[in-house]
Every structure is written in structure tokens, then in C-alpha cells.
Design goal:
The complex is a heterodimer. By secondary structure, chain A is an alpha/beta fold. Helices cover about 20% and strands about 30% of the residues of chain A. Classes of the chains: A alpha/beta, B alpha/beta.
Chain lengths: ~375, ~400
């Protein structure tokens, strides 16, 4: 049996700034033509042999449930283990009022019976918005060999607001601080993946309950860097964390780079996702495509440059799409011009429309609209 | 477990070798041959079954079944994973008193009478796994029920000059068959059998048992069972089908059927939401189209990386086409790599092939002086075509050669 079980948080509990997660979870933002953000961390866990994974939701998780189903596409539909979707609610002792979880500790408190019932010795707590192929087998070995209480996985990159920066001495983390605003400086930035024993986690939850603490980062990590041995494990391949729309756009565009793709979609560690029946892409007579990712089911009769096109998108004759992301089932009408825009799912742009954002501010159109 | 009776059980004949597909079927059964970018030939028949509401399918396998068995698996992609019914793979097996290979199509079904009886069906639908078409079998069954026939045969009008390749049905005005001729030299009409039969099970069972006892019989539906039933005066009806149907039993017809997918005038719409064609397919990264690519009137599947030119070409998943390479009217199967400046025309290239830089394969029909010598060039699975090598039109390269 695997010694590690996974707990994935469908959302971060920092201020919601992402329009793409307005009616869905951070975990279920469509990414790279046919995936959802959660697929990457979920596949990394499964590829390391983890066969007990719980996804802890916050709200608006219909799209996530729809995507994950019973876990079959990640080979997690077993009889005795597999994928669980846990939907916590937090109830106060006195007046029985129901609140949304304020932070990860709140969420963990309400799912603690599940954690107590697990047989695995260690727990991986992770966010769902990480675009990377994490080699968890190496992370697990590191955690056991280092004797750390908590292992934090980080990468060298410039973080955005809400990310944690690690100060390291060797492998030991001696300080963790919140990044307050977007920072171009490359630093040891946490990916939001923490490994600890189940016993320690239950202990942290119990103490949080006593003191009504709700932020895992603040009370379990930042304030504990001296009382616990927190070790840092560097993920040196590409990693991106989708917090804001700008993050989403930038990381999406990085997928056009062959080297980055090779690091995220590794041959020996496939990224699994829900299977949909779509036909191959049909390129018509006027198609002209350059430096773009195109998902199955598209029909293309226009120009596409430096863009990511999701499944079942139609680009009609003479339309020009540049530097844009177009999500599934959208239609770009004849003669349209799109530059630096993100079309969410199922958007119909009628003929001869010009839609334009800017590199620093890609413009998002929300799903199910007609333009 | 409680087994509910099934009105129709489908028996899918998938054991034939398909020797006219030469190098393509050397290591695998014809129904498992890849088709149309992300499908296998058998997907069409299996999808037709489930789309027609038939959820109990026996697949009769014999020749090179490993790949086919693995592909069908538990039937999940076609929604044929059922507690009662679903898809079952039926290879020949040893019985208490005997044990033998399937001697013919009729014998294959005869040997599985017990499988069919388990579901106590009213009707049995006989299908083959090597045709590309979309057909609602429930409408045919409705016709069978209404006419009260012992057997209904799907009929397709074909050009009269091709009629001698098929089983031909001579019928009276209301569609009743009075004569069935298997590949006649002088066909009397163009009513070709599509190899799709619905039998009333009681009748079929009787004729299968009778045929089995006839030592001179070749135990074939077209050659033995159908003519015998007509001779005995059973009511045999032709059910006319007008849609797209193609037997992909030859290199030429297999290539043509793939090209038909690119032709908007041909009614084989794979993306019809009301009649989906399902396939077993692992999700992969979307295709990446590079800076030097030029793609016109072509079909490209996930995980491809294209930096060359494609005209009228069908690419399966994971194909790489390097800069300067050009493909015209080709079918290229999964994970094949095509090197720089390779020039490929009118060819079928199987999976896992490596075409090195500058190789030349096939040619346009009009460039061939002797048109009788022209044909599609075929590269077998896993072969390597070396840099500068020339593969002529109509030439075939054996699987794994050049490794």
C-alpha cells in the first residue's frame, strides 16, 4: 500500500481575483486546450502511486464534480480507495450557523473524520492550481529521508500576491513570508504542496479547533518555522501557479514553448483528464496556423497565430485570431479579428467583430455569451 | 445474477485476416486497423450498435486477436460495459467433445449458440467489423418485424460493373428476395448485400444446426445459409440503405475512405452529435502547429507536432512532421516521425514508422507513365525509410524493415 494519501483544495482562500474562477473552482479552470487545472497535480499524484485522493471543495464546484466524476479517468475508481469529493461546511458550536470555510484549516476541521479514517501514514496537502509535472516519488523519498515534520515543495520563480516565499538554510526553511504584490524578482516560491504525517496534521487541526484558527499557511507554517522542522524541496522543472487572469494567460502562452511542454507533459508521467469524444481537427482551404496549440474537434478556415484553441472551436473563413485563448465550443465568425483576448466556454462572436485586449491585460469574455 | 432477456443480440464477425490489406494486417486483425485519425475500423460497427439501442454484442475473433481484444477491453468507450449484456469477446474454444477453429462465418455463430441462448433473443443481428458506415439497425429491425421475415438483408445499390464483387440479391417489387448469388460473374441487378443480416433467432438456429451437419458446406452465411433458406421458401427481405458505406478491405478502398473524410460532399460526418462514433483514446496534449507549417484540407489529431506542409492528408495522434517535409494525399498513423524535406505523395504510412530526412515516397498518378503500375505506396508498422531512399508508387515496405 502506498504510504501517502492526497488532499487537494479546489480553491485558494486568498482574495478571489480571477474572473475565470467566478462560476467555477480554481481547480476546474480549463487549461491548455483540453485539460482542467486540477489534472496536473492529480495526475502527478496518481503517477507516483497515490491511490487515495480527496478533493476538498469550497463552492461553485458543479463543474469540478462534473469533470472528476468517479475518478475513472485517473484510474481512481477503486472499491476500497480512490477519489473522494469532500464538501465541507463549517458549523459553529453555539448557534449552529453554517459558514463557508474561511481557510484551509476550517475546511480540514470539517473533513477530519475522513482524515482520521485514512490508513496512510502521510498526507500530501496541495493546491489545485499548479501547472507542473511534480515527481512525487522523489518528494516522498526526500520527506522520509530528511526527517522533516513538513516538506514544502517550491520552485524558483517570481510569485504573485498570496504566494509564500521561503528563506532556506540548506534544506531547512527558517522563514516563510507572504508575497504582498506581484514581484518580478525570482525567489524560492512555494507551490502550495505540503507533506506531513497524518498524525501531525490531525494535531494541527486539533489545535486550530481549540484556538479557532483557520489559515493553514499562517498558523501551521509561518508561525511554526522554528518549532517544526520544515524542509524545502525544489521542483526544478517548469512550474506555474494560476492565481490571477494574468497568471493564467502567461502560463497558457508558455505552453507554446516546446521545452516547457516537454517538462509539463512528460512521456513517463502522462497528464490524465476526462475523456470526451471529439473528432480530429479539420483544416479547411483558407486555414493558416502558426505557433499555436489546437485541440481536437476544431474546424479551422481562418488564421490562428500564437494562440491556444480548445476543443470544438470553429474559426470561420477569414477570421484572424492572434495571441488569444479560445475555450471549448466557441465560434469566431467570418472576418473577425481577435487579439489578446480570452474567450471562456461557449462564446459566439458574430461576423466582422474586432475584440482586443493588451499583453499586460488580456481581456476576458465570460462564458455563454453572444457578441 | 438476474438476466433479462434481450430482444436483439448482435454477433460481430471480426475473425477474418483481411489479407488484401497486405502489410497493414500482418500483425493485427482487420477490425483493429486504425482509421480516420483516432478510430479503428470496428468503432463504426460498435458505435452503430449502441446508437441503435443494441447493448449486447458478441465479437467473434480468431485471426491475430491480441490488439483487438485489448482495444475492446471492457467496452467502456462504447458504453458497452453492462451488468447484463455489454460486449463479449468470443474466440473459438475447446468443448467437452470437440474443439476447433471457426470454419466459416456461419460456423462461428453456430459455435456460440449457447452464448446467444443465454439472452433468449427474438432476433440476431449479424455484422462484420470491416465496414465504414453509419446505420440505425433499429430501423432495419423494425422493418424485419413488420414484414415478418425469417431474414432481412441490408442492401446497397452499387455500380453494376462492381456488382460481381458482392453478394447480389434479386428481389421482387416489394423487396422479397427470390435469389441470392454470392459474387456472381454476371450479376442480374445491383442490389448488393452489405453483409448485415437480421435473423429471427429460431429460424437461424435451425439452419445453423442443419448446415453444421452438411460436410460439403463451407459454413458461410453468403454461400450456404442464405441460399438454403431461400431454397426452403423462407421469407427473405432486402432492406435498402442509402447512406455512405464502404468496405475497406483493400489498400485502395481503405485510402479512399480516409480521403472521403476530407470531402465535405461525402455524407460521412464524424462530428454528428446525434450519431457519435466512439473510440478508445487516451487523452493527449493538443496538437502544436509550428511557424513553418502549412495545412490545407487535412485532418490532424492530438499530440501531433507539425512544422511542414500537409495537403489532403489524415494524421493520427502523435505524428511529427518536420520543417520542409511535404505530404500530399496521405494517411499517416500514430507516432510516426517524418524528417525534414521528406516528400510523400499518395501513401499510407502505418504507426511508429520513421521516415528520415529527404526520403521520397509515392507519386501523383499523373506522373506515372504506365498508369497500370501506379498505386498507393504503403509503409508497414515500425519500418524505417532511410534518408534519400525512394519508395515507388504501389510499393510496399514490410513491417519493422530497415530497423
Amino acid at each position: 500500500m502506498n504510504l501517502f494519501a492526497g488532499i487537494i483544495f479546489s480553491d485558494s482562500y486568498i482574495a478571489e481575483t480571477n474572473l475565470l474562477a467566478k462560476n467555477r473552482t480554481l481547480a476546474s479552470i480549463p487549461f491548455c486546450g483540453r485539460f482542467r487545472t486540477v489534472d496536473f497535480i492529480l495526475s502527478s499524484l496518481v503517477n507516483a502511486g497515490v491511490d487515495n485522493v480527496a478533493v476538498v471543495t469550497k463552492r461553485n464546484y458543479a463543474s469540478l464534480e462534473d469533470h472528476l466524476g468517479g475518478g475513472r479517468y485517473w484510474d481512481l475508481d477503486h472499491r476500497s480507495s480512490g477519489l473522494r469529493i469532500l464538501s465541507p461546511f463549517y458549523r459553529t458550536e453555539n448557534n449552529n450557523e453554517v459558514f463557508l470555510a474561511r481557510g484551509k484549516l476550517d475546511a480540514l476541521r470539517s473533513v477530519s473524520p475522513y482524515i482520521k479514517g485514512l490508513k496512510e501514514e502521510y498526507i500530501v496537502l496541495t493546491n489545485s492550481n499548479i501547472i507542473a509535472s511534480i515527481d512525487f516519488e522523489r518528494v516522498f523519498d526526500f520527506h522520509i529521508q530528511s526527517g522533516a515534520d513538513i516538506t514544502a515543495v517550491y520552485s524558483r520563480r517570481s510569485g504573485s500576491a498570496g504566494d509564500l516565499e521561503l528563506q532556506l538554510e540548506g534544506e531547512r526553511v527558517h522563514e516563510m513570508t507572504y508575497i504582498v504584490e506581484e514581484d518580478k524578482r525570482v525567489a524560492n516560491t512555494a507551490l502550495g504542496i505540503y507533506i506531513m504525517s497524518r498524525r501531525l496534521l490531525l494535531d494541527i487541526i486539533r489545535r486550530a479547533d481549540e484556538h479557532d484558527h483557520y489559515s493553514f499557511e499562517k498558523y501551521a507554517l509561518i508561525k511554526n518555522t522554528s518549532s517544526l522542522k520544515i524542509a524545502g524541496f525544489e521542483h526544478s522543472d517548469f512550474a506555474g501557479v494560476v492565481n490571477t487572469v494574468k497568471d493564467y494567460y502567461d502560463i497558457s502562452m508558455k505552453m507554446l514553448d516546446c521545452d516547457v511542454r516537454a517538462q509539463v507533459f512528460r512521456h513517463d508521467s502522462p497528464v490524465m483528464t476526462r475523456v470526451m469524444d471529439t473528432v480530429p481537427v479539420l483544416y479547411k482551404y483558407n486555414a493558416s496556423v502558426e505557433n499555436s496549440l489546437i485541440a481536437d474537434g476544431c474546424r479551422i478556415d481562418g488564421t490562428v497565430k500564437n494562440s491556444v484553441i480548445f476543443r470544438n472551436v470553429t474559426i470561420e473563413t477569414g477570421a484572424v485570431v492572434e495571441n488569444s485563448i479560445i475555450m471549448q465550443n466557441s465560434v469566431v465568425g467570418r472576418g473577425c479579428g481577435l487579439n489578446y483576448v480570452i474567450l471562456d466556454k461557449n462564446i459566439h462572436v458574430s461576423e466582422n467583430k474586432y475584440l482586443c485586449g493588451a499583453p499586460e491585460y488580456p481581456y476576458v469574455f465570460v462564458k455563454n455569451t453572444r457578441i | 445474477m438476474f438476466k433479462k432477456n434481450k430482444e436483439i443480440v448482435a454477433m460481430l464477425l471480426a475473425g477474418g485476416q483481411g489479407s488484401r490489406l497486405h502489410v497493414l494486417t500482418k500483425n493485427t486483425a482487420k477490425p483493429a486497423i486504425p482509421f480516420g485519425g483516432k478510430y479503428r475500423i470496428i468503432d463504426f460497427t460498435l458505435s452503430n450498435c449502441i446508437n441503435s439501442g443494441i447493448d449486447t454484442v458478441g465479437v467473434l475473433t480468431q485471426y491475430q486477436p491480441l490488439e483487438l481484444n485489448a482495444y475492446i477491453g471492457n467496452g467502456i468507450p462504447w458504453d458497452l460495459n453492462r451488468l447484463n449484456g455489454g460486449v463479449s469477446i468470443l474466440p473459438p474454444y475447446v468443448k467437452a467433445d470437440s474443439g476447433e477453429w471457426y470454419k466459416g462465418t456461419a460456423n462461428a455463430v453456430y459455435q456460440n449458440i449457447r452464448f446467444i441462448e443465454k439472452y433468449n433473443p427474438e432476433y440476431v443481428l449479424i455484422l462484420s467489423g470491416d465496414h465504414i458506415y453509419k446505420m440505425d439497425y433499429s430501423k432495419m429491425a423494425e422493418y424485419h418485424r413488420k414484414t415478418g421475415a425469417a431474414c432481412t438483408i441490408a442492401a446497397l445499390p452499387v455500380p453494376i460493373e462492381e456488382a460481381s464483387r458482392f453478394g447480389i440479391m434479386n428481389t421482387d417489387e416489394d423487396g422479397r428476395i427470390y435469389e441470392f448469388e454470392e459474387k456472381p460473374q454476371k450479376p442480374k441487378c445491383n442490389n448488393a448485400s452489405m453483409g448485415i443480416y437480421i435473423f429471427t433467432w429460431d429460424k437461424l438456429k435451425k439452419y445453423l444446426i442443419k448446415d453444421e451437419q452438411d460436410t460439403s458446406s463451407s459454413h458461410d452465411f453468403g454461400a450456404n445459409i442464405l441460399p438454403d433458406m431461400i431454397a426452403q421458401g423462407e421469407k427473405m427481405m432486402a432492406y435498402r440503405f442509402d447512406g455512405y458505406w464502404k468496405d475497406v478491405g483493400t489498400i485502395e478502398s481503405f485510402w479512399e475512405a480516409n480521403m472521403d473524410l476530407l470531402n465535405p460532399k461525402i455524407p460521412l460526418n464524424l462530428s454528428d452529435p446525434d450519431w457519435k462514433i466512439y473510440s478508445r483514446f487516451d487523452p493527449m496534449i493538443p496538437q502544436y502547429i509550428g511557424k513553418n507549417a502549412q495545412i490545407i484540407e487535412s485532418m490532424v489529431t492530438e499530440n501531433c507536432r507539425i512544422d511542414g506542409k500537409l495537403w489532403y492528408t489524415v494524421l493520427f495522434s502523435g505524428v511529427q512532421v518536420e520543417k520542409g517535409a511535404s505530404l500530399n494525399s496521405c494517411v499517416v498513423m500514430s507516432n510516426t516521425k517524418i524528417g525534414r524535406n521528406a516528400d510523400i505523395k499518395y501513401a499510407i504510412i502505418a504507426d511508429d514508422v520513421v521516415i528520415e530526412d529527404g526520403a521520397v515516397i509515392g507519386d501523383l498518378p499523373e506522373n506515372c507513365e504506365d498508369s497500370s503500375k501506379w498505386g498507393i505506396a504503403v509503409i508497414g508498422k515500425g519500418a524505417v525509410v532511410r534518408s534519400g531512399q525512394v519508395v515507388l508508387p504501389n510499393e510496399m515496405i514490410e513491417p519493422y524493415s530497415g530497423r
